[in-house]
Amino acid sequence: MAAKNKPSAGPATLMDDVLTAILALSISFSCLNRDNALVIIATTEYEASVIYPRKGGEGSMEDVVMGGSSGECGERVDAGLLHDYVKLGVTELVNRATERAEKMGQQQVQDGEGTEGGATNSKVVSSTKKGAAIASALSIALCTINRFMVAHHAGVSALADTSSLSQRKDDEGVLALMGGGGGNGNKKNGSLSNQSQSNDSRGGVLSSRALIIQASQDRTSDYNALMNCAFAANKSDIVIDGCFIPSGDKNDPKTSPFLEQIVDQTRGVYLSVPSGAAQVGGALSEVLMSVFLPPPSIRSNMNLPKLNNVDFRARCFETGESID
Known about the structure:
Blueprint lengths: L13 H19 L7 E4 L4 E5 L8 H6 L12 H35 L20 H19 L9 H4 L43 E6 L8 H13 L3 E6 L12 H9 L4 E3 L10 H10 L32
Parallel strand pairs: 3-4, 4-5
Antiparallel strand pairs: 1-2
């Protein structure tokens, strides 16, 4: 309960709380291992875009994937550059989404005025698409992870530099979507490998994982696409973690059934952050780092949130209701 004459804590705000927590997690992740590589993707209702590394900017995707002139997977994260790129990328996405929503709203008004008697056309529906394009963002993430894997194994790639690939050592590079990390651990005993011990039976395969931070309700029309992404990630041993941030409004969802299914399918960690004090004042940063920063190889030794009751029922694309 809030103290008398003081506003209640929460919910988290995008710029002050959520992005601050993501930046803290990203920098902490980059410090875990010199070979860690970080890619951040943001999404709105209408589009998904890679905001770090920034296209055409310093620290390009080519440098992240191929290691630049050094030819080593991973890159040194500049905290100032990361902060600027993330804030700028999110601001641009929000502005484009706002402009698009306004244009769609104006078009609907014009369509309604053009009907007989000035009545609103029954085909005109709300321009607001509920839910963000999570499926698009996850698809981009999986494609980016594949670029890392192809480059790491000297495969066919438009970015490949055969001279540098021939000298590359086995590493434990990690790709993260909105933060993540880990080492190339031994799955049988859960031990954490270091770089000198990375010559396992898989020949130094990249240990890749993604973290989805969602603050909007599920988009039912994306269900098939999301499940296909989950199956593809599971087949490639890509762990997907999920963090849902509820708004605290009683009419808004408190969890994401779709995200729960994805996390369960890929053996990740899922957490729905409690609304209120856990989301503000730096608390969200502590939650993200304590739950999602540890690599999968040591999670069996930690007391992390577990998914016990996952609703695997499909949902109607039109109504969003569960189907038995």
